């Protein structure tokens, strides 16, 4: 039974879903990095929000971990390259808290427009300072939207409902989408110059870090009010403090900070400054949404291999997963076969599908071929890290889908490019379930690829099989299955044997010396 750790505060529905689906779950929150490292080894899944930092060290200690599920959007607390290298799937719930976060941005915009926190404080202190608080309307004002993705577009929709004009800067926003959203697509310079309010909705990347830098803050309209419900680091906090102090920026509301938890900041106490402790996603509705989604997604993956919303692997629906499972076994075997036979000589891989296989999602088949192929180099290779490792090795990858139907109703072919030329193996499924090798380097065979095997290339001649059988028998190696193929009578033949015990180097050398043997290689599947 798979085991999941929920390491951040999450709606109880997440644990309930795991249990209902037969997954053991521990809810242990607030642990230090070292405590997490000490306990992570026994879990197959880790469900988190933004507090748990899934660092390289945590991943190194996570010997059983298969999936990290983020109940939320931002995954900057997960070292995704390290997770990918280790073969751990990282998934998030990209829409579950979008409305809630957009509403928080709008709430903060209103809080800034009317100085609500200060007015509340003063009133509750018994001061009744009616003349101190003079706000601004949002109607007819320009909202500068930096980032027009899921949350940004909801903010735009709400702002338009409030009769604001929305000017959006997002290099990936198409003119058609801008029209659909009812926003004006502008450059960052235009936005800075024109916006009465600015709201940020981008991830933190190299291109967005300090997008509101000292220089860009200076380009904003005097009296601008700024909201950040996206990520700390989008605004230069020291420059913001200066701009608030000088009065150039009339107000700023931050839900997110460069360092979190933000228990101290030069911004605290600055007039016009409002803060919330990363509450963007904190509503009952959003937390129920993300808890249900993350638990269902992780359970699908752990129980059936379905992949939804993964950041380091192609999607594979829970419906597709059972159909693809035998193909992935076939693909992994074909990859394993060429990997073991050609190893370092492989410079490129082409994966072709035809017949029934061509109607399926090809990405998981490709991932499985690469996993089989790269396993020659490490036992820890899987579908997540194989494409990454293949890229690192500079393998040239090609995927081809054929409409034609050949000799088999379904076929997967793997062709590797080597200095000796292209070499190809192909396999099919019997009864839609049983992987079978049907061609190896141009020779037709029909073989299972399973357990310990021996691959022999020899000259087709009478008496060879008897001599081989005797050699194996004398060494106490029992033959399980025996598959033979040849290019022509008396020409080159290939033999694939499954054996009950591994063939050691000494026995392999003995076989290689039998008359007519061109090569002998032990394989393992
Ligand atoms: N405060 C919170 O609690 C909270 C809650 C949810 C999400 N978030 C954060 O909000 C942010 C936005 O989330 P989303 O779901 O809308 O993401 P999204 O991926 O749907 O949208 C991000 C948008 O940013 C745009 N973008 C990327 N680089 C840009 C650049 N250099 N300049 C301008 N735009 C750029 C992208 O094109 C995209 O449209 C994320 O960082 C997420 O982590 C915060
Ligand atoms: O990216 C997100 O989803 C938000 O930052 C929410 O973070 P939280 O789950 O820690 O509230």
UniProtKB/TrEMBL annotation:
InterPro entries: ACT-like_dom_sf (IPR045865), ACT_dom (IPR002912), ASB_dom_sf (IPR029009), D-isomer_2_OHA_DH_cat_dom (IPR006139), D-isomer_DH_CS (IPR029753), D-isomer_DH_NAD-bd (IPR006140), NAD(P)-bd_dom_sf (IPR036291), PGDH (IPR006236). Its EC number is 1.1.1.95. Residues 454-515 form the ACT domain. Pathway: Amino-acid biosynthesis; L-serine biosynthesis; L-serine from 3-phospho-D-glycerate: step 1/3. It catalyses: (2R)-3-phosphoglycerate + NAD(+) = 3-phosphooxypyruvate + NADH + H(+); (R)-2-hydroxyglutarate + NAD(+) = 2-oxoglutarate + NADH + H(+). It holds the Pfam family ACT. One of its GO terms (molecular function) is phosphoglycerate dehydrogenase activity. One of its GO terms (biological process) is L-serine biosynthetic process. Residues 4-312 form the D-isomer specific 2-hydroxyacid dehydrogenase catalytic domain. It comes from the Bacteria. Catalyzes the reversible oxidation of 3-phospho-D-glycerate to 3-phosphonooxypyruvate, the first step of the phosphorylated L-serine biosynthesis pathway. Also catalyzes the reversible oxidation of 2-hydroxyglutarate to 2-oxoglutarate. This is D-3-phosphoglycerate dehydrogenase.
